[in-house]
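New to this. Look over this protein:
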Amino acid sequence: MPTLYVSDLDGTLLNREDRLSPYTIRVLQEVQQREDVYFSYATARSHVTAAQVTQGLTVALPVIVYNGAFIIENGTGRVLDSCGFSGEEVAAARALFAACELSPLVYSRQEGKDRVSFLSQTGNSQPGNRGLARYFAAREGDPRFCPVETEEALYAGDVFYFTCIMDQREAGDALLQALGDDPRFRCTLQQELYTPEYFLELMPPQATKANAARRLKELLGCERVVAFGDAINDLPLFAAADECYAVENAVEVLKAAATGVIPSNAQDGVARWLAEHVLGE
C-alpha cells in the first residue's frame, strides 16, 4: 500500500524567501510520479495563499489548510472535509477576547467563500502594533479581507478560526490563563519565525493537521504517513505519523519528538530527504 508524505510549508518546505526552490520543485514533481507515493502539504495558510507560495509545484492530491480545519481539493478548491465552531463556542470565544482586550481576525465561510473579518480600527493596524502592520502590508489585496464596523458583523458566518497578532505576549498569556482546560478550544501561542510578533490562534479541538492527515490517509487508502515540520503546531501531526522529521531550524521541542532531524528549510531539507529515501538519488 502507498505511503502519504505530508509536509508543513512555512519554515519547512518553503525557503526563507517563502518560496520553493527550483530543486525542491523538481524533486517533488518526480516524487509524485511514483505509484506508491502520495505527497501533500499541511499548513496554517489558506488554500489561496498556499497556492501563491507554492507556484511552480503541481500537487495532484487534496491539501490540508488552516491547520487542519479544511481538506481542499487542489485545483478546484472544493471542500472535502471541514470542522468549525458552534454558535455557543463563538460566543464563548468572543467573551474571552473582550476580557483580555484582544481584537481578533475572525476566519469564516460566508456564501461559499473564505472571509477574514476584522474591525476597521484593527485594519488600521491599531497604532503601535507593528505586527499587525506587517501582516496587512504583506497581504495587501487579499480577497478574503473583510473590514467591518460592528462586533456582530465581526463574528458573522460559519466561524472556524481566530488569530490575534501582538507585539508582546502578555495579552496572549492572559487569554491562555482564562481559557484554562476548556475542551471546546485548542489554542497555540508562538512567536513568528523571522519577525518579533506573537501569533495566538484559537481553533476547534478537532481542527488539527494530525486529524486531517488521518482523514486524508483514509481517503487515499494509504498505509503509512511520514511527516515533516518545524513548529510547535506540528507536534500533533508528528504524534500521528509513522515517521516524522524536523528540519534543522525547527523548535527544540519538535526536534525532540522527531524520528530524525534533517537539513534546514534553507538547505531544501525535505526535498533532499525525499530524493534520498524515495527517489534513491
